[in-house]
## 1
Amino acid sequence: MKSDPTRRLRQLQKLLPPGELRLDLAARQENAGDKWFASHLPEAVALPRGTASVSRVLRFAEQHRIPVTARGAGYGYVGGCVPVRGGIVLSLARMNRIKEIHAGDFVAVAQAGVILQTLQDAVEKKRLYYPPDPASRADCSVGGTVATNAGGPRCLKYGVTRDYVLGLQVVMADGAIVSLGGRTHKNKTGFDLTRLLTGSEGLLGVVTEVTLKLIPLPPFRALLVVGFDSMKAAARAIREIFHHGFLPCALEVADKFTLDAVRRRTGSRRLRHSRALIMVELDGQEKSVRGEMRTLEKLARGWHPVFVERAYGNARCEELWELRREFSFALRDTGLIKLNQDIVVPRSRLEDLFQFTARLQKRFDLPIACFGHAGDGNIHVNVMYDKNWPGIQARTRATLDELFRQILAWDGVITGEHGIGLAKKRWWPLAASRQLRALHQRIKQSLDPKRILNPGKFV
Ligand SMILES: Cc1cc2nc3c(=O)[nH]c(=O)nc-3n(C[C@H](O)[C@H](O)[C@H](O)COP(=O)(O)OP(=O)(O)OC[C@H]3O[C@@H](n4cnc5c(N)ncnc54)[C@H](O)[C@@H]3O)c2cc1C
C-alpha cells in the first residue's frame, strides 16, 4: 500500500456506514489466516452489509492501489484468503441473507456470506436439494464455495458447485456491479462469465450474491459400507461398481492408516481387521433404491470382504456417515501435522495411485494417509509429519514434488477441490503450461489492471 496507509483508510472509513471498516488489531488478527498454515495481518477489515459498500471499498482501493482480499468464512485449506500483501480484507460474513428459495423455479438466491449448510437446510425443508457438500459445509460460506468451486462426496453423481451456479452478482476491481448469468436453468447469452468467476479464488472479482440451481430432493437413500483386506481389493471393487452400471451419489474410500486412526478414536469394532474401506451411497425413489441395494450387496459379497454393513433411510445412513466425518479428526488425533492434498487422477489410475503413495511412504519414511472421493478419482493424500523429525521440511517438500509430478504424468491434476491459493503456488508452473499461464495473466490484466484483487497468489 502507498504512503500513510492509515490516513487513507480513515478516508475510506468516512465513505462507509459506521462499523463497516475496522482498523483495530483484534479484527485484523481474526481475518489474517484460514485453515492452512500461513497468515498475514491486513491493515483494515471491511465488513460491508450490502453490495453498494463492497463497490465503494473497491472503487476507493483501486483508485489508491490498495490490495483487497475477499474473505468468506476463512475455512479454506490453501491460504486463499490470506492477505499476503496487507491492505484490506473484504469479509462477506455480514452479507448472510437468504433472499429467495423458489420451489416453482427450482432456484435459490443467497448473499455470498450465507453459511452453506444454513442454505441447504432451508432448501431441504421445501423438499428441494442443493447437492454440493464440502466437509466444511457447516462453516464455509456460499461465496467461498463459488470462489473455490467446492465439491464433496455427492459430486460424483450430482456435479460440483459450478454445475449449480446460474447467476452471480459480482463487484469488479473498479467497483462496477455486474450481474452475470441469470436464474434460468439454461442460458446462452454471451460468454459464460459465471463459469469464469466460479473457481477464480477472489482474483477476478468479489461475489456478493449467488443464484443457484436446485433439484428435487431424492426421497430415499441407502448406504453400503464394505471393509477389505487391501487397498488393491478396494480399488477393484470400485471399478466393478461402475462396470455393473451403478452411479452412486457417493463412493468414498479410506486406507489402513486412516482406519487405524478412526478405530483408535471411536473404538469401532467393525474396523478391526480392515485394511481398506469403501462407502457407497445410492439415492432416489425408495423401491428402486432398495432393489439396487440388494443387487449391490450381492455383488459386494462376491468380493470376499472383511465385512459388509447396510443402512436404509436417513437416520441410519447418517449414523454410518459419522464414521466418514471422523477421518480428519482421527488423523489430527495422531498428534502429527497433516499436509492435506486434494489431487485427482483419472479413475483408471486409482490402484496405481495407492501403490505409488505406498512407495513414497517407504522412500521418505513419512506416513501417508489416503481417503476421499474415490468415484471421482479425487483422493485426499495426507502427508503426515512431526516438525521435530530430522530434515522434515526437505522431506515433505520432496514427497509433494514427487507426488505432484507423478499425478501430472498420469494426466491428473494437483487440486480438485481446494484451489491453488498459497499452498500450491510452488507447483502452479508445473501444473499449467506457459501458454495457459499467459492466458490467465491476460484475463487478470483485463479485469483487474491495477492488480488489487488478492495479490500475491498464483496469477
Ligand atoms: C475441515 C475442512 C474440510 C474441508 N472439506 C472440503 C471439501 O470436502 N470439499 C471442498 O471443496 N473443500 C473443502 N474444504 C475447503 C474449504 O472449506 C472450501 O474451499 C470452502 O469453499 C471455503 O469457503 P470459505 O467461505 O471458508 O472461503 P475462504 O476460505 O474465506 O476463501 C476461499 C477463497 O475464496 C475467495 N473468496 C471467498 N469468498 C469470496 C467472495 N465472496 N468473492 C470472491 N472471492 C471469494 C477467497 O479470496 C479465497 O481465495 C475444507 C476445509 C476444511 C477446513
## 2
Amino acid sequence: VSWVSWLEGQTRAIEQSRRRRVIRDLDARGPVGLLSGGKRVVSFASNDYLGLSFHPQVLAAACDALHRWGAGAGSARLIVGSRPIHSELEAELAAWKDAERALVFASGYAANHGVLGALGGKDALVCSDELNHASIIDGCRLSRAEVAVYHHADVDQLDAILSRSNKRALVVTDAVFSMDGDIAPLADIARVCARRGALLVVDEAHAVLGPEVPDGAHVLRVGTLSKSLGSMGGFVCGPARWIELVVNRARSFVFTTASAPPVAAAALAALRVVRSPEGCALKNRLRSLVDRLAPGHPSPIVPVILGDEQRSLDAATRLLERGLLVPAIRPPTVPPGGSRLRISLSAAHTEEQVDVLCDALRATIYQGADA
Ligand SMILES: Cc1ncc(COP(=O)(O)O)c(C=O)c1O
C-alpha cells in the first residue's frame, strides 16, 4: 500500500464517519471574543474556570519572568532547564495540596503519562474508571501493567477486581469527569484502596469546586496548571519518596524541556490568587453561576446529553447563531450515542451571559433532553 492511497483512505474514512474536526480560532481574552470570520461570541468552551488567564497579577508575573529568564527554559529540568521559578511553584503547589512535595510537568497530559509510566510494570495491576480522561487511558497503556477498566464509579466492582489480584495495585480516577462533570466517590475508593493495599492516583484537573481528596501515605494527586490556574502545565504531588521516584522514572518529565519560565510564573501567581480571599470569592462566584444554570451540579462542566451526533452539531450551530459558543462533543471523545453539548462555566462569565445561555437552551434544545 502506498502512502498516497493510505492517506486518501484515511481521509475518506474521516469524511464518511462525518467526524472531521476543524480548528477554529477564537480571538479572545476571557469569555467574549471574535471567531475567525468575525462573529462575536460568548464562549462556554474554556476551562479557565476562575478567569485567571488574564488576571493582572498573573500577566505581571509572566512579564517579569519573561524579562528575567527569557521565553524558554532551553533544556530539560534535570540538565539544567530548571529555574528558581519552577522550584518556587512546586513548593507552593505542595503547600496548597498539603503534600510533602510536588513536581511540575509540561502539561497535565504529560503528568498522567509520566506518573502511570513511572509506577507501572509487568508486576502491577492498574484499575481505571471507564470514563477517565484520554491522558489516563494512554498512561495506562504506557504503564506496561495489567489494566482493569471498571464501570464508571462502581466501587463494588473495583473492590472485587482488587480482591482477585495479588499484584501491586494502583487505582486511578478523575476527581471530576471531564465530559460529564460528575464526581468520583473518592472517600469510598480511598477506603477500598486502603483495605486492599492499593495506591490511589487522583486526577484533579477539573476539581475547582471539589471534591475533597482523602489524604494518605498512598495517595498521589495529579493536577493541571492549564485550567483553574489559567496557564499551562501539569503536576503531581504527594509523599516525597514517591515524587523522588517520579523525578527519576517519568519519561515525560525526564525527556522534555522544562516549562517556559513565564508560564510557570503565571501559574504561581494564579495559585497565590486562588489561595487568597480573592480566590475564595472567585470560587463562590463560580458556584453561584453553576447553580444558576444547573442547581446543585457538582462542577462547572455541565453536559446537555442529546445522544445523536447530528442533533448535537445542529444544537451547537443554533446556539452559535445566537452568539453562544458551546462545543458539540461526539465520539470518540464520548461513547457512541452519548453526543452532547459541553458547557463550561467560569467566574469570568456574567450572570447575564449565563441567563442568555439558559434562555437559548430552553428555546432551541429542550425537547426531552437530559441535563
Ligand atoms: C481530566 C483531565 N486530565 C488531564 C488533562 C490534561 O491536562 P492538560 O490540558 O494540562 O494537558 C485534561 C485536559 O483536558 C483533563 O480533562
